[in-house]
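Protein Entry — a single chain follows
Next Lines — sequence and tokenised fold
***
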Amino acid sequence: MSHLLSPLRTVLIYFTAGVFWILLTDSILQWLAEHSLPTLLRIQYAKGFLFVLLSSILLFWLLSKSRSSVRSLEMAYIRIFRESPQPMWIYDRKTLEYVDVNDAAVHLYGYTLEEFLKMTILHVRPKEEIPKLLDATRFATTGFQNFGTGST
């Protein structure tokens, strides 16, 4: 799995590139100033535009690398959810409708994914447990919630 660039690391790379730019280009400008003053003014403008161009390319590269890392992590979490042997689902807290279910839930309950997505979490609970489930969902927080096992 690729390493996610931290904001601090991204800033440090950008800072280091900027410091090298200042140190190197100022030495070149000083040398040119000794040989031709009109050329110096043109080079200062060019230096500014070149810095903006190169720093933009560097930032694009760093952000692309970070975005790629985020995508890799996202795909890993989706795979963990999909392939987990533990039946799991994601549901809408307001409507209690399924948003997604993993393969283990499809296998355990015998519904297809499409059937699940037309149902609510109340459909897989025993009737006597529905009031308890409704109370629990009113006060549920985000993240994993274990409401026990259901039966079909």
